[in-house]
Task: structure prediction
Amino acid sequence: MKQKPPNLPDLPEKKYFRIGEVCKFSGLPAHTLRYWESEFPLLKPKKTTTGQRIYQRQDLEIIFWIKHLLYEQKYTIDGARKKLNELFRGAGEKDSQLSFGFEEARLRSKLDKAIRELKEIEKILSSPSE
Result:
């Protein structure tokens, strides 16, 4: 992605940002950021061993694009997802001919959801029946 998102503030020169810092920079509550993770496959912050989210600079750029599309351009969630797809189309493709870009992130999100659901089913099936 070549274009910077609108209204991106000057960020400190550091590799990772905690969710509280991202809330402060973006003016968004943490629950909104967590919700956006479920709606926008491109937004995938890393997690520490304790499960705490840590965002990289690219994650912040994605957050500011989402905020701009939803709040200023008045896109729907689905419309913003499609626009992000257009904005990030080809991201990372110069590194590999086989790169899937946005599609890979979307498929990974679906796979993660399927794994969670299967684990829930396994828990139900392994519990003693009455």
Observations:
- Confidence is low (pLDDT under 50) at residues 92-100.
- Strands lie at 17-18, 46-47, 53-55.
- The chain has one domain: 17-126.
